[in-house]
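Quick note —
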Amino acid sequence: MFLNDGQGKFRDIASEVGGGFAQPKVGRGLAYGDFDRDGDLDLLVTTNNGPAYLYRNDQLAGNKGVRIRLIGTKSNRDAIGARVRVFHGDTSQTRLVKGGSSYLSQSELPLTFGLGKRDKIDRLVIDWPNGGTEEHKNLPAGHAYECIESKGITKLSGF
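Predicted structure written out below.
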């Protein structure tokens, strides 16, 4: 288990996060998703000829985020191939909606963006697979959103 230090480097934290990483495993597949609907991404690891392991990400730092679910109308319904860019302050993040992710695994399609302590996204830009672009501004953090292509964005819930 590696932790991104935010400066382009990672450090091994397996010994710091508990017993789940004490024994070696032969991993076969990995999928991420917000299994407990708390706004952060959890991991499901399948092992070779063994059980699956769910690692919950229970972040305690008080950081915020947003989740974006895209539904295509002119593009494919799952919006696979869409690129979403989030701008907040002087930083930005980009995610791509993709099918498949690891051996016999599929991560969830909604996109999750961590925002640290920020209360909102300044700007969200969606580049749909069909070539269209949408932009939405000032979205509060701590919520899930659904965006239907060419029909706007709706706040679904908080987490």
